[in-house]
Amino acid sequence: MAAASTTVVVYQYPKCSTCRKAIKWLDAQGVAYRSVDIVSEPPSVAVLEQVRRVAGVELKKLFNTSGQSYRNGGWKDKLPSTSEADAYVALASDGKLIKRPMVVGDDVALIGFREAEWAEALG
Fold first, then answer.
1. Domains of the chain, earliest start first
2. Which CDD domains is this protein grouped with (predicted)?
3. Among 26, 55, 70, 120, which is least packed, fewest CB within 10 Å?
4. How far from the centroid of its chain's Cα atoms is residue 79's Cα?
């Protein structure tokens, strides 16, 4: 659980309704955060590796599988055979390819907005 004094980073896209809902939830809960536009400032490979490690998820969970970048890039077919290194580089170079919102802290990593999961991790 994140300490109340710990500020987490929220990678979000301002035009995304789920991201706006997540930001509203964070504000209502009094969670300290720094908001970063995931499109203009995508997370680095190191941050993405940290998120995956802390969240304990498979690489595919970092991808926005319903997004245009995923479809246009042919990632459904490419992902199984793409190296992890190449996948991380692609994610770090295109914020719209990343599932959002994404929360990153010292001991927390959340991908997508599920209120119960966020409440457990950040409450």
1. 8-122 (3.40.30.10)
2. ArsC_like
3. 120
4. 18
